[in-house]
Design a protein that fits this description.
Length: 492
């Protein structure tokens, strides 16, 4: 049995070229297999699209089934089949109506012959045979009338043969002919038990019954035994047919039970994660992904299950889709909100980057240093941004901060060297204790400012680490100068 959509399309085309009234079950089977493949492919495409979107940090919105040209062609062939079937059914109904009129006309003539008080035996016998031949040449009549007119046909035949009192030899000849034909039908019915397809066997049995009804009576003493033989062979097929559908219904019921269990499993997984308004309370990406994997596992198992009973199949499917669709809509909303927050965070960080660049390009002042440190502290309070921007914006900001403090370090180094030379000169011309005291206080203030600034520096790059080391060296040098001045002051 093929599982390829194109092959199923070609198989359907071949069936439509046949008598559409004889291929109904095959068409339904091809249709069922085709759309099972089609829905599985669409589900796989949707899953792949969702996965791709998730890997890109996005969520899938307003997904539409992918246009499938093979499915469109399949629909067109199905429409052709339905049109041909409707046309054939209309034609069949018209033919059956005409057949009914013809058979009613034959019954009227047979009734006249069967109820006539006198009869031309030979003349009526031939006429009866002509009517029987004409009756057999006529096709089917509307089903509600078939049993009724057949009973009348059998009744008038038997009445006629009894009434005209046909001679035994002629009557036996007709009975013998009918016996041969009905015996062949019994044999054909008995062979049907070997047919591997019970559906085909059941359809063939119905045809044999139609032929049986068209054959005249056999000798009275043989009628019951012959009918019982035919009926027993029919019972074997009917029981197999019933068992086949019982097993089919049993499997459909098992499928329903499995699908209901999966629906309950979804309820167990999802309902306790909702608030009183029915909204999901999930806040973490990890929890959404774990729950998505669980829902997708249920979807995979659902697709592996066959149809439920027709009475429940659509309703149980609607309940299942309502749960899964509701979950994925909620997930889409969650990630949309995250993207919106990422966008706001990116905007805020770009604003901080712009301010940092302005400080870098501006005048090097203590106020600028404090502002840069404050920008670093503010940066820490802003949440994450989309992964594709995260590294880039962070590198731009840290590079700007590093460049700012590198420039500050160089400026301070130059200024410090100049001040040290000036202090040294003053210490060597003059032993003024007041000047030494002022220098001592000035050094204390510089040490305090440097120690305070180093606490707020948060750069993580290699150059930033070196800057921290240099600032610590500066503090150590200032403390050494402070100790020297302290010794001079004590010496005074």
């Amino acid at each position: 049995m093929t599982n390829d959509k194109l092959e199923l399309l070609n198989e359907l085309k071949a069936l439509v070229e046949q008598n559409v009234n004889e291929v109904k079950e095959q068409v339904e089977d091809v249709k069922s297999r085709f759309y099972r493949l089609y829905h599985d492919e669409q589900a796989a495409l949707k899953d792949a699209a969702e996965k791709a979107a998730q890997e890109a940090g996005e969520t899938l919105e307003n997904w539409q089934p992918v246009l499938d040209e093979t499915e469109q062609a399949f629909k067109e062939v199905l429409n052709t089949y339905k049109q041909k079937r409707a046309e054939l059914q209309k034609q069949l109904e018209q033919e059956q109506a005409q057949n009914l009129l013809r058979k009613e006309n034959i019954l009227a003539q047979m009734k006249d012959m069967a109820q006539a008080e006198t009869a031309d035996v030979m003349g009526n016998l031939q006429k009866m045979r002509d009517l029987q031949a004409e009756w057999k040449s006529i096709g089917q009549v509307p089903a509600p009338k078939a049993q009724e007119i057949w009973k009348q046909y059998q009744q008038y035949q038997e009445q006629f043969y009894d009434l005209v009192k046909i001679n035994i030899e002629l009557r036996d000849l007709d009975f013998k002919k009918n016996l041969e034909m009905k015996t062949l039908l019994c044999e054909a019915a008995e062979k049907l038990k070997d047919n591997p397809s019970i559906v085909e066997a059941s359809r063939a049995l119905q045809q044999l019954h139609d032929e049986w009804a068209e054959i005249g009576p056999v000798a009275r003493e043989l009628r019951e035994d012959l009918w019982n033989r035919f009926k027993e062979a029919s019972t074997v097929i009917n029981k197999k047919h019933q068992a086949y559908f019982d097993e089919l219904h049993k499997k459909e019921q098992e499928n329903l039970t499995q699908k209901q269990a999966l629906i309950q499993e979804l309820h167990d997984k999802l309902d306790n994660l909702k608030n009183e308004e029915g909204e999901y309370t999930i806040k973490s990406n990890k929890q959404w992904e774990e729950l998505t994997a669980a829902v997708q596992d249920v979807q995979t198992r659902w697709r592996a299950i066959g149809f439920a009973p027709r009475k429940y199949n659509q309703s149980v499917y609607d309940e299942y889709r309502a749960l899964t669709d509701g979950f994925f809509r909620a997930k889409t909303r969650f990630y949309k909100n995250i993207r919106d927050q990422f966008s706001e965070n990116l905007k805020a960080k770009r604003d901080l980057l712009k301010q940092a660049e302005e400080l870098l390009n501006g005048e090097q002042t203590p106020e600028a240093t404090e502002q840069m440190i404050q920008l670093q502290k503010t940066w820490k309070t802003i949440g994450p941004v989309a992964r594709k921007y995260s590294d880039e914006i962070w590198k731009q900001f840290t590079d700007t901060c590093d460049a700012f403090f590198n420039r500050k370090r160089e400026t301070e180094r130059q200024e410090r060297g100049e001040r040290q030379r000036e202090r040294g000169e003053r210490i060597m011309q003059s032993g003024d204790k007041n000047k030494l005291s002022r220098m001592y206080e000035q050094l204390q203030q510089e040490i305090k400012t440097a120690e305070n600034n180093i606490l707020f520096f948060t750069g993580k790059s290699k150059s930033a680490s070196k800057l921290v080391q240099d600032m610590q060296k500066k503090i150590d040098a200032l403390k050494a100068q402070l100790k020297t001045l302290e010794e001079k002051l004590n010496a005074e």
